[in-house]
Specification:
The chain is an alpha/beta fold. The protein has helices spanning 21-30, 47-57, 92-118, 125-134, 140-149, 154-160, 165-173, 188-197, 207-210, 214-226, 241-253, and strands at 6-7, 35-38, 60-71, 78-85, 201-204, 231-236, 257-261.
Length: 293
């Protein structure tokens, strides 16, 4: 039975969050979190800092990552996310593999940057250039911010009702929108294999954030289970009670872990700004070894 107050997905400035890794841990501690995972996108650069901060603040920090991956075995290719928990964040081979994944992620982001230009937006280029020059990752929030800060776009954005980063991403940078571009690697199977090679556990992140139908979610869950998936993020800030129970029941049937998070990105984020803002609906999460890192 889970006894610790947990939140197993959070992001820092090492990817698309707004707080440093140590400040994420401090914010979690202030919110009463006892078990935390820093899961920056395709990088473990902030894990050591977070673990150190956790020891100082009394928060158990799980070495973790969120890997963006392509599901190329379904009806149509789509981008999904795989969380890796209890990874060996000091393993050189894993770090080298992540560098290859991150390079593809950044090239995809640059393709989306070009696509935003193609649909008529100007971008405030200086912050993007600075991040690239310093080796800092760039993602969709940074592209959205560049569009919002360019004065030439003000009238169009007002006309389209786009006032913040989240609205811009939803309108142009998610699957099916004009400036979205699919990444090429890794596949979900490759992401699972990479996590396992680093002695970690692979968990499918927020299924119903990316999918809309129950049947498709269960079909994909079953398929991922045959590819070595260890668990599913059944408890998530945007999951309904029906969606949560559906995923939880399938996890129980397949003896998979069932984890949860509020996907913290920073105090100013419109949706992902509060730790433990997810419901368990009186179900008992199955965290397995993650509960005692």
């Amino acid at each position: 039975m889970t006894t610790r107050r947990f939140d197993l997905q959070a992001h820092s400035t090492r990817s698309d969050g707004t707080l440093s890794p140590s400040d994420v841990v401090a914010a979690a501690a202030a919110s009463g979190v006892q078990l935390l995972a820093l899961t920056d996108h395709d990088t473990i650069a902030g894990v050591a800092e977070a673990i150190t901060a956790g020891k100082r603040l009394g928060v158990a920090v799980v070495p973790a990552i969120e890997v963006s991956a392509v599901d190329d075995r379904g009806r149509t290719p789509r981008e999904l996310h795989v969380l890796g928990y209890l990874i060996d964040h000091e393993q050189r081979a894993f770090s080298e593999q992540l560098q290859r994944f991150l390079a593809d992620r950044e090239q995809r982001t640059l393709r989306m940057r070009d696509a935003l230009r193609e649909v008529g937006f100007e971008l405030d280029e200086q912050p993007l250039a600075q991040r690239i020059a310093s080796g800092a990752p760039i993602g969709r929030p940074h592209l959205a911010e560049a569009v919002l800060k360019a004065d030439a776009n003000a009238e169009r954005l007002k006309r389209e009702g786009i006032a913040d980063i989240g609205a811009l991403i939803k309108a142009y940078l998610i699957e099916g929108r004009p400036a979205f571009r699919m990444r090429e690697t890794p596949t979900v199977a490759e992401a699972i294999e990479a996590i396992h090679s680093a002695h970690g556990l692979a968990v499918w992140a927020h299924p119903f954030w990316d999918l809309s139908t129950e049947q498709e979610a269960l079909e994909i869950l079953d398929r991922f289970a045959t590819e070595g998936l260890d668990g599913v993020e059944a408890f998530y800030i945007t999951h309904t009670e029906r969606q949560t129970r559906l995923l939880y029941q399938r996890c129980e049937q397949r003896s998979l872990l069932s984890t949860g998070s509020a996907d913290f990105h920073g105090p100013g984020n419109e949706l992902f700004h509060e730790f433990m803002a997810f419901e368990t609906y009186d179900l008992t999460p199955r965290l397995g070894p993650i509960a005692t890192p």
